[in-house]
Amino acid sequence: MKPVSTELDSNARVVRNENAVGEGLAGDFLVLDLGGGEYFGIGEVGGFIWSRLDGSKTLDEIAAEISCEFEVTVSRARDDLSRFVRDLVQRNLARLEDDGAGSAPDLWR
Is residue 101 part of a domain? Predict the structure, then answer.
């Protein structure tokens, strides 16, 4: 497992793992780990982020969208996004996007 104390690469692209599904429910957003059978409540902002983890946007691009949608600074959005993504990756709910050469880029710098 990668260390969590290092900084995330802002150009990284993250993808939801196939073993995890998410759904909005009663004002919250839940993610189910199909492999482990665990549910995770990730809230409104988490659901917003989850919907963008398809590998098409960098973490910086997602942070900018969070900033606009939830009226927080880009710096705050980037910090919160970094913590959230680290947690998803550690729980095997998300992964780094493959760079096309058969290997994922290093998320931590």
Answer: no
